[in-house]
Amino acid sequence: MEKDEEFLEEEENKNEPLEILKETGGITLPDFSSNIHCMTIIGQIEGHIVLPVNNKTTKYEHLIPQLVAVEQNPEIEGILVILNTAGGDVEAGLAIAELLVGMSKPSVSLVLGGGHSIGIPIATSCTKSFISPTATMTIHPIRYTGLIINGDQQFGYLRRMQDRVIDFICMHSKITEPRLRSLMFRTGELAQDIGAVLVGPEAVEAGLIQAVGGLKDAFSALNKLITEVCS
Fold first, then answer.
1. Which among 116, 140, 172, 173 is annotated as catalytic?
2. What pLDDT is stored for residue 3 in this prediction?
3. Is 62 assigned a catalytic role?
């Protein structure tokens, strides 16, 4: 009996590297305790509707408990948010952004690849925001996908939701409302859509993001914020 248990334990230990490889892409994970919590937002932000299994998604019901736990954990002094997202559910994205704004601990966002659509409020919600030189941010109006809008009430709802997103972005970045609306409703730049695409330095020039930078810049800024809070 004991030999059987030992055999099973050995087999589990043999399979552990394979499980780590499948889940994280690496054989081993660094054994390091940090005062910074890293949260990634990738693919589409999934909200109230479950997306198809072939979509890469970030589920907001997974992120909200993380943020609550970070706020309560005295050992975590700051949060790094890394974004490479196509956007997604508007209310879920705003919920994440509002939680980040309401945290007592400093936060830094870093846009890599893309921080599109509702990913923009999340990127601007942090204490300090960075974007890599080649990353892009797509600004466009809110719209329904695959649904028919057949009443003034639905148009009114979309307008109010659009205003919520615009107000949030303008409140937590340096872009002005007229500039944001002009980028949002620009024609001729996106195929079969209206809006604008800003590459890293353009997003900074527009006032959406505070600085162009990479991972070392984000960590440096976050450590500086943590020092200021603790001093």
1. 140
2. 47
3. no
